[in-house]
C-alpha cells in the first residue's frame, strides 16, 4: 500500500540537487518548486540531463548533493517516490515485450492496485486493432501510444513524461496531446521533457530549460 501523500502544497521542491555519473556532472545545483497540479515543460538538448532529472524525481536515481522532497517525501525515500510517480520513458521501459497490449495495461492496473477500462484506454490511443498483439511486434510509434495509454491508466499524482512526441506521426502527436491534457485536467502534476517546445507548451505554459545540467526558467 502506498504511503499517504502529505498536505504539502508543493509536489516537488529541490534545492541544490547535483548528480555525478562517473566523471560527468549530469545535474548541477538544480533548484525547482513545482506546485501540486502544475504542468511544466522541460526543454534541453540531448545530454542536457532531462531524463536524469525525471529519473531522480521518480526515485530511480539517487543524488550526489543537495536535497528535495516529492509530495513531502525526501528524495532518499525512493520507495515512496516510486509509489507516487509514474515515469513514461522515451525508450519504452516499463512495457513487457512478451505481453500483448491488453495484457500490458491489465498488468499496470494490477501493479498499481487500480481498476480501469483497459479497452477504453486502448481505443483512446487508437490501438484497439492491436490489442492482442505482443508489444515486441509493435512499431516505435505504436509502442509510444501504448506507453501513453499506460500513463493514462496509472494516474499517479506526479507523471513524468520523456519525449512523448518522438516516433509519432501527426495523428499520434494529437493523441499524445489529448492524453497529456486529460492527465493535467485530472489534477495530475505533469513534467513533460521534449524537444518540440511548441507541442509541449500546448500542454504546459511554464517552461524550464536544462543546459549543461543547470536548470533555468525558459522565456
- CATH superfamily, by name, is P-loop containing nucleotide triphosphate hydrolases
How much strand?
Answer: 25-35%
User: Residue share in helices?
Assistant: 25-40%
CATH topology: Rossmann fold
InterPro entries: AAA+_ATPase (IPR003593), ABC_transporter-like_ATP-bd (IPR003439), ABC_transporter-like_CS (IPR017871), ABC_Transporter_VariousFunc (IPR051782), ABC_transptr_haem_export_CcmA (IPR005895), P-loop_NTPase (IPR027417)
Protein name: Heme exporter protein CcmA
Keywords: ATP-binding, Cytochrome c-type biogenesis, Hydrolase, Nucleotide-binding, Transport
EC number: 3.6.3.41
Report on this structure.
With 219 residues, this protein is α/β, with parallel strands linked by helices. The protein has one domain (10-217): Rossmann fold. Helix content is 32%, strand content 28%. It has helices at residues 50-57, 78-84, 101-112, 118-124, 140-154, 170-185, 197-200; strands at residues 10-21, 24-35, 39-43, 65-70, 73-74, 85-88, 158-162, 189-193, 206-211, 214-217. Strands 6-7-8-3-9-10 form a 6-stranded mixed sheet, sandwiched between helices. A 4-stranded antiparallel sheet has the order 2-1-4-5, with helices on one face. β7, α6 and β8 (189-193) form a beta-alpha-beta unit. It starts with 9 loop residues before the first strand and ends with a strand. This is Heme exporter protein CcmA. GO terms for molecular function: ATP binding; ATP hydrolysis activity; transmembrane transporter activity. It comes from Deinococcus maricopensis (strain DSM 21211 / LMG 22137 / NRRL B-23946 / LB-34). Pfam families: ABC_tran. It is an enzyme of class 3 (hydrolase).
Amino acid at each position: 500500500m502506498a504511503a499517504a501523500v502529505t498536505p504539502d502544497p508543493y509536489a516537488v521542491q529541490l534545492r541544490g540537487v547535483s548528480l555525478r555519473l562517473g566523471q560527468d556532472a549530469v545535474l548541477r545545483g538544480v533548484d525547482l518548486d513545482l506546485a501540486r497540479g502544475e504542468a511544466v515543460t522541460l526543454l534541453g538538448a540531448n545530454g542536457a540531463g532531462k531524463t536524469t532529472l525525471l529519473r531522480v524525481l521518480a526515485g530511480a536515481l539517487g543524488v550526489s548533493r543537495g536535497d528535495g522532497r516529492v509530495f513531502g517525501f525526501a528524495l532518499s525515500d525512493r520507495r515512496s517516490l516510486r509509489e507516487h510517480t509514474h515515469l513514461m520513458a522515451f525508450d519504452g521501459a516499463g512495457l513487457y515485450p512478451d505481453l500483448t497490449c491488453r495484457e500490458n495495461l491489465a498488468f499496470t492496473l494490477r501493479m498499481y492496485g487500480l481498476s480501469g477500462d483497459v479497452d477504453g484506454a486502448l481505443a483512446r490511443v487508437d490501438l484497439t486493432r492491436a490489442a492482442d498483439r505482443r508489444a515486441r511486434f509493435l512499431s516505435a510509434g505504436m509502442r509510444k501510444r501504448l506507453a501513453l495509454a499506460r500513463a493514462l491508466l496509472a494516474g499517479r499524482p506526479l507523471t513524468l513524461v520523456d519525449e512523448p512526441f518522438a516516433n509519432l506521426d501527426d495523428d499520434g502527436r494529437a493523441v499524445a496531446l489529448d492524453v497529456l491534457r486529460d492527465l493535467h485536467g485530472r489534477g495530475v502534476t505533469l513534467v513533460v521533457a521534449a524537444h518540440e517546445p511548441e507541442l509541449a507548451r500546448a500542454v504546459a505554459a511554464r517552461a524550464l530549460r536544462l543546459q549543461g545540467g543547470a536548470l533555468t526558467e525558459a522565456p
